[in-house]
Automatic annotation (TrEMBL):
Residues 7-68 form the PWWP domain. It comes from the Eukaryota. SUPFAM superfamilies: Tudor/PWWP/MBT (SSF63748). Residues 116-127 have a biased composition (Basic and acidic residues). Residues 116-197 are annotated as: Disordered. Residues 165-186 have a biased composition (Low complexity). This is KLTH0A01012p. InterPro entries: IOC4-like_PWWP, PWWP_dom.
């Protein structure tokens, strides 16, 4: 009989027709309130790597992820593999501590102050606990109520990063893999006036919308077995046009945080390297050129992180 799942376990979670995604079984008591209230009976909460999204699933549907499986994937992954998925496996490979993972997540969700004021602040978040254990009465964690994060409850990196000030969706949003109604219900900018309005959106909204762009483009052009049809091609040109429109926003709509969590620039790079998607190359290259200062900053940040480890 397979050993029961506990918090901190690495798993592969499959949503819809998308590839299984590396995730961590997350302690329910430390979830954001908006995620916790979407809990499902007989389901545990998982948090995806390289993405800001949570997902509720039954343990029987989750597959344990071992270090050897991670290494095999990274060794055998083709150059055309989804960069978001590769990044998720890389983060899973580097995973060593549930406590560190939770602290990083709390920091990303602007909840670290609540943690520091809680009764658990001086303790380590231990792995190996009951993943069905919920919050005490009043949705309090460690005696101190964790307020709703300023990060929006939306799909998701997001998949992938997002990943996602993206979300705690109950219907299984995973960043680029998401088909969440909460994401689809979000309208994207259609005009310069909308761009101006969106430029004032908070960080969470920018990340969420960036993830939505990535989700739709990846689904239409990259993550598919057959070539895109006329409808997918038409929608993709429209999406790229909206992205181009938003590059005119001041301050920059697709800023450091939006691209860092959504990895949208990496997806556009994948498209430009695919000869079968040549009709999209000019649009993608123009967008990437306009983002070059932000992309350079992202590369520098990643290099600094490697030096610090």
């Amino acid at each position: 009989m397979e050993q029961k799942l506990t918090t901190g376990d690495l798993v592969l979670c499959k949503v819809g027709s998308f590839a299984p995604w590396p995730a961590v079984v997350f302690p329910q008591r430390l979830l954001r309130k908006d995620v916790y209230r979407r809990r499902r009976a007989e389901c545990v909460a998982v948090c995806f790597f390289n993405d800001e999204t949570y997902y509720w699933d039954k343990p029987a549907r989750l597959k344990r992820l071992t270090k050897s499986t991670i290494e095999r994937f990274l060794e055998d992954a083709p150059a055309t593999e989804d960069p978001g998925l590769v990044g998720a496996y890389e983060e899973a490979r580097d995973y060593t501590s549930l406590h560190e993972f939770v602290m990083q997540r709390l920091e990303e969700e602007n909840r670290i102050e609540e943690w520091e004021k809680s009764a658990e602040a001086d303790t380590k978040v231990e792995a190996g606990q009951d993943p069905f254990e919920g919050r005490p009465a009043g949705l309090k964690a460690g005696g101190a109520k964790l307020r709703k994060s300023s990060a929006s409850a939306s799909p998701p990196r997001g998949y992938p990063k997002a990943r996602r000030a993206a979300s705690g969706s109950a219907d299984g949003s995973i960043g680029t893999k998401s088909s969440s109604a909460s994401l689809k219900s979000r309208s994207m900018p259609e005009s310069p006036s909308a761009v101006k309005k969106l430029s004032r959106l908070d960080h969470a909204k920018r990340v969420e919308i960036s993830l939505l762009f990535r989700c739709k483009l990846q689904r239409n052009l990259v993550q598919r077995e057959l070539p895109p049809g006329p409808d997918e091609i038409k929608e993709s040109h429209k999406l790229l046009g909206k992205i181009t429109e938003n590059t005119l926003a001041n301050p920059q709509f697709f800023d450091f945080e939006a691209l860092k969590h959504s990895k949208l620039h990496k997806l556009l790079k994948v498209i430009t390297n695919d000869d079968n998607l040549a009709e999209f190359h000019r649009e993608c290259n123009d967008i990437l050129a306009s983002w070059s200062p932000v992309i350079a900053e992202l590369k520098k940040d990643k290099l600094n992180q490697r030096r610090d480890t």
